[in-house]
Specification:
This protein has 452 residues and is an alpha+beta fold. It contains 12 helices and 19 strands. Helix content is 25%, strand content 23%. Strand 8 and strand 9 form a beta hairpin.
Length: 452
């Protein structure tokens, strides 16, 4: 097939201010974009992909990726947020068809009152369906349900060379697998069919259990994974090699009668001074958090505080000040606890601990996409305020441990991994290259592969 320029769109295509509002969640690295396109209709997407003279474009969702995988510095972005229509829903199968820019928060708002929930959700509801597919996101139920991509039945993909292409496990199946976890590089997801999960209501039967060592965490995971749909732990990374933490586990509750009012939390109005977050304030936060949860027994909690505790403060990323922050999310093979302990030790010794340490044992379901990140092992996610070279040096030292252990880093959270670490994390990345849309690129992809 040959590329053909699409006819001019019927309605005027909106464009945005190139420098404003298009950052990633970590606000690092800073990037300036040449053009921002804001299509609201399919013919406008086709027009941008075939006619715009940009060196390359990249779809942009809600910018909840932390590093540069949703950025395309000096090139252009296609903001997908106006492609946000719910198209149809089959009550008998639970399959929802919606456009790629629909946010998880909107799916919950419309479908939870009807008894349906997302099959997999990350720790924020402010992600789009397109963004969730492109990073093949995982949630607290990875041990049971795998990744979000495993619940996608099919999608329509705008390509600059082939137009709008339907992809599912039978039709264009290679493109289907490349696009799940494909970092937005294989085309723009116009619409997707997602199989939702039947639930009784908005409540979760939750438990929190304190633990004091890695082996205690692993025992809790083993014991809980069969009985609980959702498991995850919070980790006090100032505790060094013998981590203490709180293990959270829960199931959708049969309780239906209790009145439910979703919370609307405050919003940080501007970036706070960077000195506010230091080892003393973070240590104090961790101790208070541990004490608060260590005493809790079983409880009935609303879905939003169970799945999305961070969403209760909107724009909490401004807490880290103007320099922004980095998230370090790795996976370490489970049979290498020494590597995991070494990571924690290096973090504790650096004095750059984070108050949002999250630990989870991934399940062993096969990956849904060629570049999917989750794989059997322990995944640890930590936030670090960006303090320049000091922070980057700590990350490089953590990279050594991850690489030697045969582990991997998560592109959705990354702003600085080396090409060598990307290669060892995703040894099959070259087999993904043929599926990249010739018009698409990203800052992340150029950085880790040397592509132009
Ligand atoms: C508080 C918080 C908690 C999080 N917790 C988790 C977690 O538990 N598990 C997890 O896996 N992730 C987690 N994340 C990361 C987040 O889920 C992913 O980065 C997600 O992909 C962001 O979606 P987005 O819509 O904001 O997309 P963006 O960040 O804007 O873009 C992400 C990628 O999707 C591509 N893309 C966007 N729209 C489209 C489209 N229509 N078609 C094709 N490609 C598209 C972009 O090009 C980019 O490559 C968390 C993030 C935050 C801020």
């Amino acid at each position: 097939m040959t590329a053909q320029s699409a006819a001019s769109p019927k309605r005027k295509l909106e464009t945005g201010h190139p420098t404003k509002d298009y950052v990633s969640w970590g606000r690092y690295p800073a990037a300036t974009h040449a053009n921002i396109y804001k299509p609201a209709w399919n013919d406008q997407v086709a027009f941008v992909l075939t006619s715009a003279s940009d060196a390359s474009v990249l779809p942009y969702g809600l910018g909840r990726s932390y590093g540069d995988s949703c950025l395309n510095a000096d090139r252009s972005l296609i903001d997908c947020r106006r492609l946000n229509r719910i198209l149809c829903f089959d009550e008998s199968t639970g399959v929802l068809r919606c456009e790629g820019g629909v946010a998880f928060a909107d799916i919950i708002r419309v479908f939870l009152p009807k008894g349906w929930f997302l099959p997999v959700t990350p720790g924020t509801q402010f992600v789009t369906v397109g963004g969730a597919i492109a990073n093949d996101v995982h949630g607290k139920n990875h041990h049971r349900a795998g990744t979000f991509g495993a619940h996608v039945r099919q999608f329509g993909l705008h390509r600059s060379d082939h137009g709008l292409v339907a992809c599912n496990p039978e039709l264009n199946s290679d493109m289907f697998r490349a696009t799940i976890g494909g970092l937005g590089l294989t085309g723009l997801i116009a619409w997707a069919d997602i199989k939702l999960l039947r639930v009784n209501g908005p409540w979760i039967d939750a438990e929190s259990v304190p633990f004091h060592s890695l082996s205690a965490f692993l025992d809790l995971s083993r014991e809980s994974d069969g009985r609980f749909e959702y498991t995850v732990a919070w980790l006090d990374c100032f505790a060094g090699k013998a981590p203490r933490g709180i293990f959270f586990r829960g199931n959708h509750s049969a309780a239906t009668g209790k009145a439910f009012h979703p919370k609307r939390g405050p919003q940080l109005p501007f970036a706070l001074p960077a000195w506010l977050l230091n080892r003393y304030t973070v240590k104090a936060f961790n101790s208070a958090y541990y004490r608060m949860h260590a005493k809790k027994g079983p409880s009935l909690v609303p879905y939003d505080s169970f799945f999305y505790p961070l969403d209760s403060v909107r724009q909490w990323n401004l807490l880290y000040g103007k320099q922004g922050f980095l998230q370090y999310q790795c996976v370490i093979p489970e049979d290498n606890p020494a590597a995991f302990e070494e990571l924690l030790d290096r973090i504790a010794r650096s004095g750059q601990g984070s108050f949002l340490g999250v630990l989870k044992k991934f399940g062993d379901l096969p990956p849904a996409g060629i570049l999917s990140f989750p794989r059997p092992g322990l995944t640890l996610a930590l936030d670090f305020a960006m303090r320049g070279e000091r922070t980057l040096q700590l990350m490089r030292s953590l990279d050594e441990v991850v690489q030697q252990s045969g582990g991997a880093l998560y592109p959705a959270k990354d702003a600085r991994m080396s090409p060598a670490l990307f290669e060892s994390s995703f040894p099959r990345w070259r087999s993904f290259v043929p599926y990249i849309d010739p018009k698409m690129s990203s800052s992340f992809w150029r950085r880790v592969t040397g592509a132009q």
